[in-house]
Design goal:
Helix content is about 45%, strand content about 0%. By secondary structure, it is an all-alpha fold. The protein has a domain of about 45 residues. The mean pLDDT is about 80.
């Protein structure tokens, strides 16, 4: 039933060698053969710039055909890309976490040393007579093993 309704959907698996090449293509009235000739370049304003074209010609003729320059440029670009990403990401991290760095802590400690409130200095004699009396060698007033006569 399907063969009768849509015969164009059934692949020709058995008689491929007998099927002419053009029969496998679209109908001839729908063919569009390309016109031979060079087509205009599809370039932007930057790509049409003579300096830009000269740079690409230089890369094609000198860099791509000289293996030492090619590998040097490749290593340079790898280094440059690494540095750009490292400074971008690590710089962003450092900027967001500057308050956690050791430099910030040292700076805050220096500010604290300058601005801290003055502490009252206590001398030894201000703490009481206990330390002073023991230093002078006086005996305690009460108690003791001395005999009174």
């Amino acid at each position: 039933l399907i063969e009768i309704i849509m015969p164009h959907l059934i692949p020709n698996l058995f008689e491929k060698s007998y099927t002419p090449y053009t029969a496998k293509l679209a109908p001839k009235n729908l063919w569009s053969r390309p016109a031979l000739g060079r087509k205009p370049q599809k370039v932007s304003r930057l790509g049409a710039d003579p300096t830009w074209k000269a740079m690409w010609r230089l890369i094609r003729s000198w860099v791509c055909h000289n293996h030492k320059v090619y590998y040097t440029v490749s290593i340079f670009w790898a280094f440059a890309v690494y540095q750009v990403w490292w400074h971008t990401l690590v710089g962003y991290y450092r900027q967001r976490n500057a308050h956690r760095s050791i430099e910030f802590a040292i700076q805050k400690e220096a500010e604290w040393e300058i601005n801290k409130p003055k502490e009252e200095e206590y001398d030894d004699e201000d703490y009481g007579d206990e330390a002073g009396a023991a230093a002078e060698g006086e005996a305690p007033a009460e108690g003791g093993d001395e005999e009174e006569e």
